[in-house]
Design a protein that fits this description.
This protein is α/β, with parallel strands linked by helices. The protein has two domains: 187 residues, NAD(P)-binding Rossmann-like Domain (Rossmann fold); 157 residues, NAD(P)-binding Rossmann-like Domain (Rossmann fold, 3-Layer(aba) Sandwich), CATH 3.40.50. The strands form four sheets. It has a six-stranded parallel beta sheet with strand order 3-2-1-4-7-8, sandwiched between helices. The two termini are 38 Å apart. 42% of the residues are buried.
């Protein structure tokens, strides 16, 4: 069957690659550069498995900037466009999704619309009524940047926000294209599926915030954080995973999803959800204060990315720390190989690593790298386990 994918980011491109093994997939994106790269089988995003599949697999995949070419004749239109959090509206900006829906209505086609973009709880039902849509449902993704295709090939679970014939067929499409034998598919209403997405990511943010606050306490009291975490995590109910301290949770998903869930609690009693959001700001304040106490003239930021093997630094926690340090008049320089620009938010980008090390009094890195072994006396990190 023909499947259209709107949006060639991590979600859209990984799904397009996955499904094009057994289906005709046309990816629609407004950026000509991305489209040209996909058609030349060059991944526009850093993802080891997408790069591998582009080189080694026969994929029935093409990309276009013409939405008509993508949407006309498609059995499914997967919407994977960005939904940034609008602080003013206290809600996700869903205009990119509505733009896709309006394009399908102009074409007068009856394709099933599958929303993969993260959305507020209740959104799918609201647009079903607003646009009088016959077949639309939400199906959340649970992907990691840099490992998006891998997480589609070996999914933890498949959640589909409908129990219709089209929804069950879509769930099977994802399962059949994966490499995992026993994939759990759970069908439910879209509103519950929307809640699954936001509660899942907020729980992950809670876990990050918890171990970061543990680390804040231990460092403040001169205790060995690593010993405490290892002792705590030997409890099988807690588990030894997702427990490495950091400068805060960041990236594209967790900051905005936690804020959206908090907004969804507007008329519901809560304490914990707000605390998770507030804890992340407190952590950044603490890290920045620790650096400011050392009275450096120049602070070097080693990599803006959230984790190793990634080129994504959207909303990375270290950016918030940079702002706090610069507000005190301290010079901040950046070493980020993926940046072509000379400046990043008015901070000089140093291309030469040796020069960067020399000019920095303190080097901040969210995740430790062997490139810094010759200047460990300058490095400040909370990466205790040397892993993500």
């Amino acid at each position: 069957m023909k499947i259209a994918v709107a949006g060639a980011g991590y979600v859209g491109l990984s799904l397009g690659t996955l499904l094009s093994q057994k289906n005709e997939v046309v990816v629609f994106d407004v950026l000509r550069e991305k489209v040209d790269k996909i058609n030349k089988r060059i991944s526009p995003i850093k993802d080891e498995h997408i790069e591998k599949y582009f080189k080694e697999k026969e994929l029935n995949l093409r990309a276009t900037t013409d939405y008509k070419e993508a949407f006309v004749g498609a059995d499914y239109i997967i919407v994977a466009t960005p939904t940034n959090y609008d602080e003013g509206l206290n809600c996700f900006d869903t205009s990119s999704i509505e733009d896709v829906i309006e394009k399908t209505q102009q074409l007068n086609i009856d394709s099933t619309i599958v929303i993969k973009s993260t959305i507020p709880v209740g959104y799918t039902e609201s647009i079903r009524k607003r646009y009088n849509l016959k077949s639309v449902f939400f199906s959340p993704e649970f992907l990691r940047g840099g490992n998006a295709l891998y997480d589609n090939l070996y999914p933890s679970r498949i959640i589909v926000g409908s129990k219709s014939k089209e929804a069950k067929k879509f769930g099977q499409l994802l399962k059949e294209s994966s490499l995992k034998k026993d994939v759990v598919i759970k069908y439910m209403n879209s509103t519950e599926a929307e809640a699954v997405k936001l509660f899942s990511n907020t729980y992950l943010a809670l876990r990050v915030a918890y171990f970061n606050e543990l680390d804040t306490y231990a460092e403040s009291k001169g205790l060995n954080t690593k010993d405490i975490i290892e002792g705590v995590c030997l409890d099988p109910r807690i588990g030894d995973y997702y427990n490495n301290p950091s400068f805060g949770y960041g990236g594209y998903c967790l900051p905005k999803d936690t804020k959206q869930l908090k907004a969804n609690y507007k008329d519901v009693p809560e304490n914990l959800i707000s605390a998770i959001v507030d804890s992340n700001s407190t952590r950044k304040d603490y890290i920045a204060d620790e650096i400011i106490k050392k009275n450096p003239k120049t602070v070097g930021i080693y990599r803006l990315t959230m984790k190793s093997n990634s080129d994504n630094f959207r909303f990375s926690a270290i950016q918030g720390i940079m702002k706090r340090i610069k507000a005190k008049g301290i010079v901040v320089i950046v070493y980020e190989p993926s940046l072509k620009e000379e400046y990043f938010f008015n901070s000089k980008v140093i291309k030469n690593l040796k020069r960067f090390k020399k000019e920095s009094d303190i080097i901040l890195t969210n995740r430790y790298d062997h490139d810094l072994e010759d200047v460990t006396n300058k490095v400040y990190t909370r990466d205790l386990f040397k892993r993500d």
